[in-house]
Specification:
single chain, alpha/beta, 3-stranded parallel beta sheet, 10 helices, 16% strand, binds guanine
């Protein structure tokens, strides 16, 4: 029987650390602040943004939720970011992804002050991740995956890790964290054009699924005894549920659970960690900006 890695419990522990740190910062006269910008009405993004703002409230972090209509122009959005860059009460800025298609997301990210880029998407922070410079911000979801592995006592050093997905939000930074000197894994980044993807996945001692395709990774893609981290959060229609859908990961959970050593469930695995690590990054920003 495999171990289920409980993301809710680990996230709660991270949030307890954050609560203590907020108290310490406030005692020094620094009230940490996070601004979350949402353009448009994507229902999943609305849920994520709501949770981020609610968690700030629970920790005593000041937050601003800025909801802009889907028709917001690039210039208007850049002006909002510029205003937040200049606001001394705001230490972290996040523009929820994905924005509407007419928005140049890359240009928006480059406009965020890298010292406030708590998503870790700005090129300066991407470089610091590669350089293993701890003053940079590590993207929240892969940082959360690493923390889950650590909390579950999973050794990464010398292990074969396969990351399925090459996004800038998860796949690429996850690979960088696994190969870094404090993790020492041997890493393969696989993607939609990888030849014989199931065979590549079967090499993995640690398999990270971040593709956004419901239940794509089947039991026969997984080496017996592997550790499986499922980053996917996919809505699939389900008429038996009141809301009309249920959430599933990128991994066919039931069949893979029977075969692996440990696995993160969906929901309740990586999801809660993303928000917890965002809070950690916001406190890092507040600390660094306060000097
Ligand atoms: N959309 C999905 N995950 C994320 C994230 O970590 N940050 C932002 N800004 N948008 C996202």
């Amino acid at each position: 029987m495999s171990k289920r890695i409980d993301g809710k419990a680990v996230a709660a522990a991270v949030l307890d650390e954050c609560r203590a740190e907020v108290g310490e910062l406030v005692g020094r006269g620094v009230k940490p602040g996070l601004a979350v910008v949402l353009v448009g009405e994507d229902p999943a993004s609305q849920v994520y943004v709501g949770s981020k703002v609610r968690t700030c409230g629970e920790l005593g972090i000041h937050s601003r939720k800025i909801e802009l209509p889907a028709e917001t122009s690039q210039e208007e959005l850049l002006a909002v970011v510029a205003e937040l860059n200049a606001d001394p009460a705001i230490h972290g800025i996040l523009v929820q992804s994905p924005p509407p298609p007419h928005i140049d997301e890359e240009a928006v990210v480059r406009t965020i002050d890298p010292r406030k880029d708590v998503d870790g998407f700005h090129p300066e922070n991407v470089a610091k991740l590669v350089l293993e410079d701890p003053t940079g911000f590590v993207p929240c979801t892969p940082a959360g995956c690493m923390r889950l592995l650590e909390s579950a006592g999973i050794e990464t050093s010398g292990k074969e890790a396969v990351v399925v997905g090459r996004s800038m939000i998860v796949g690429k930074p996850m690979a960088m964290l696994l190969v870094a000197k404090d993790a020492n894994a041997t890493v393969t980044i696989a993607h939609s054009r990888t030849a014989d993807l199931p065979a590549v996945c079967r090499r993995a001692d640690i398999l990270v699924a971040a593709v956004g395709r419901p239940e794509m990774i089947k039991a026969d893609w997984v080496k017996p005894g592997a550790v499986v981290v499922d980053v996917g959060i996919n809505r699939v229609d389900d008429a038996t549920r009141k809301r009309g859908y249920r959430l599933v990961g990128d991994v066919a959970f039931d069949e893979v659970e029977a075969k692996c050593a440990a696995i993160t469930p969906v929901p309740g695995g990586v999801g809660p960690m993303t928000i917890a690590m965002l809070m950690k990054n916001t406190l890092q920003a507040a600390r660094q900006l306060a000097g």
